[in-house]
Amino acid sequence: MPDLLLELFSEEIPARMQAKAADDLRRLVTEKLVAEGLVYEGAKAFATPRRLALTVHGIPARQPDLKTERRGPKVGAPDAAVQGFLKATGLKSLDEAKIQRDPKGDFYIGLIEKPGRAAIDVLAEILPVIIRTFPWPKSMRWGARSAKPGSLSWVRPLHAITATFGLETEEPDVVKFEVDGIEAGQTTYGHRFLAPSSISVRRFEDYEAKLLDAKVVLDPERRKDAILTDAKQLAFAQGFELVEDQALLDEVSGLVEWPVVLMGSFEQEFLKTPDEVIRATIRNNQKCFVVRDPKTGRLTNKFVLTANIEATDGGKVIVSGNERVIRARLSDAKFFYETDLKTRLEDRLPKFEQIVFHEKLGTQAKRIKRIERLAAWIAEFIEPQLKIGARFYEGNSAQYANDVEQAARLAKADLLTEVVGEFPEVQGLMGKYYALAQGERASVAAACEEHYKPQGPADRVPTDPVSVAVALADKIDTVVGFWGHDEKPTGSKDPFALRRAALGIIRILVSNDIKLPLLKSIDVAWLGYALNEAGVIGEAEHFSNDLLAFFADRLKVQLREQGARHDLVDAVFALGGQDDLLMIVRRVEALGKFLESDDGKNLLAGTKRASNILSIEEKKDKRTFDGAPDASLYSLAEEKALAAAIEQVKAEAGAAVAREDFAAAMSAMAKLRPPVDAFFDKVRVNDDDAKVRENRLKLLNEIRSATRAVADFSKIQD
User: Fold this and answer.
1) pTM of the prediction?
2) What DSSP designation does 459 have?
3) Cα–Cα distance measured from residue 356 to residue 145, given in angstroms and rounded to the nearest whole number
4) Packing angle of the helix pair 465-484, 498-511 (nearest 10 deg)
5) Pick from 399, 400, 566: which is nearest to 470 by CA?
6) Where are the alpha helices (DSSP H) in 341-417?
């Protein structure tokens, strides 16, 4: 079957737009083909700095013939209705129509046969529409035609359109259409400088090969591989190691059609600036990679750039130009860094009085005060649980409290420094460097960086006890503040990243085995707003349960990503009063293991059977069967055995849960399985004696009650 080759050749396509534009082109064309009945075999799109290209193979040569039935007027309808029906269906007379019987009467049915068109004609119709309506984030008009209504809007001036269609074994045809005076043809162009002449192409294989000869690597992945391989080899040849950067690699590959990797250098004195600042400077300003010494792990005074040309001088002028710019930028960065070191972090804090964090949450100064209070409360609460803290503080609670207070006070101060103002991505990290430079304790400095963590699922979780307290305080204050002021996430929108903050809180608590009551934490955090703002009225009670449910949803996401079942989270949360996330996770883990066993599966089945019977009978009697069963009404051994087992399991499971030994609680629950199985096998619940029936239903309710020591089994899916 025939293939389509389409190329849209323009002045420039910004690197950040290329991947999406290629995907949009593939999607728009293939969706339209399918809608026209032209089901294809495969499609792939490509992008370079000057072109979007698409190949679609296995397209039928023609659309299938279309046969549809159209219902017309009733038999005996007025002549005007009949004539309209004949015109719409193309029938010559009613003799060519069928009659369909219907409860409302007999109706004429017309069969409309629409022969399929040649696929090339369909393409000539759909491609110009797609080009004219292409969804660029930003576009422009140009030239004399731009003054005319309906002129083409494109990301940059569009120069040529290549569109061919045909079988591999035959000479393809040009898809005939034009857009804004640009006629589709078989002509494209090579590299802007190395091979700027026109190229005549036929189909995709021919097109890709001729572009390669003309110094254009069409496939972005191939360009990335070439850049990365050459850069690593160039660094290795000099005994260094490339600092890989996927985001930068993606961007650089979108800036060149013929990548040529070169190495430059800068003065050693700039290495006195922190590595991260050097990297940010070189990366942001010149889109270059940095190089490190594998022995020390520190950056060297080398960088790797990617040119878009094979220069006759081997790239000396290109390297020299980049060195000149990088030298100037590093000089600025060094000046910023050295200037920052002259002012202590605490001396910057008064400026926060004039900086609003959010109109509803007050200034940054007020925010810092809230974080200080909350971090102090959290530190006092979690200190006995932090085993790692013993290595740092050896039981010195006063020192730990002082460090938490100082870290919370200084953690945001680097936001006012010159370096962070220039490179926001190093916030926190520069706080650590500046804190160490002014003699702060190691844990205080670490918290300046780590209180932002984790910033995503792949980011590490802080473990330093000071960092843990300040990170929790920062995130809890943010979530509670926005939630309490009715700035909640809605649908896919989460402008203040509250979902990420909640997941960060969960990961910190679980990873560090910390028990922290969320409801109490919410109250303490909201009190911080009440102290800062006279306008805050009322307790956190009006939104705390809603916020707790939000954390439950985030916990489900976290556990689901780890392979746990979300229904088990529901089963544990359904018990009510569950706001210790660590305990919930441990209980879910134990419940999951229990339900994988035969005892767990069978007990779940028995418990659900009991619940189903109870639901039916409660609905029938319009009452519940609460209260202790009457032991004197037990007439069967299975009743007595079940009652005894329930009492034993309640005591053992309750005690195990109280000491947070959930594995032991599950082992106790397993003892219910044999008597439950025997009860349902031998006992008739709906006995003819009303008192016996009621008593047995109360016994079933006791099963449900006993299992609720660990979870609400009714929430668990079979």
Assistant:
1) 0.82
2) S
3) 48
4) 150
5) 400
6) 345-348, 364-382, 389-393, 397-410
DSSP state of 105: E
Encoded tokens for 227? 């850049």
Rounded to 5°, angle at Cα 711 from 709 and 715: 145
Written as six digits, the tokens of 498 are: 């509250």
Give the number of C-alpha atoms closer than 13 A to the C-alpha of residue 396, restricted to the C-beta side: 10
Instruction: Locate 714 and state its tokens.
Output: 């009714």
Contact in structure between 467 and 403 (CB atoms under 8 Å): no
Q: What is the mean pLDDT of residues 397-401?
A: 89
248 SS3 class: helix
Neighbours of 6 (CB within 10 A): 24
Phi/psi of residue 294, each to 5°? -65, -20
- Position 391 scores a pLDDT of 54
Higher-scoring residue by pLDDT: 114, 11? 11
Average pLDDT over residues 86-92: 82
What sign does the CA torsion over 683, 689, 695, 697 have?
positive
Identify which of 369, 333, 373 has the alpha carbon closest to the alpha carbon of residue 350. 369
- For 78-90, the DSSP string reads -HHHHHHHHHHHT
**155: CB partners within 8 A, 6+ apart:** 10, 12, 13, 14, 17, 21, 136, 138, 139, 140
Closest CA to 50 of 83, 96, 9: 9
597-715: CATH, from 1.10.8, 2.60.220, 1.20.120, 1.10.730: 1.10.730
Distance CA 462, CA 454 (A): 7
Q: Which residues, 6 or more positions from 559, have their beta carbon under 8 angstroms from its beta carbon?
A: 565, 566, 568, 569, 585, 588
Q: What is the DSSP string of 488-536?
A: --BTTB-TT-HHHHHHHHHHHHHHTT---BHHHHHHHHHHHHHHH-TT-
User: Alpha-carbon distance 16 to 22, whole Å?
Assistant: 12
CATH class of 3-61+118-213: alpha beta
What angle do helix axes 364-382 and 397-410 make, rounded to 10 degrees? 160
Amino acid at 288: C
Instruction: Supply 435's token pair.
Output: 């804190």
Question: What integer pLDDT is reported at residue 541 of this predicted model?
Answer: 81
Phi, psi for 104 (deg, rounded to 5): -90, 0
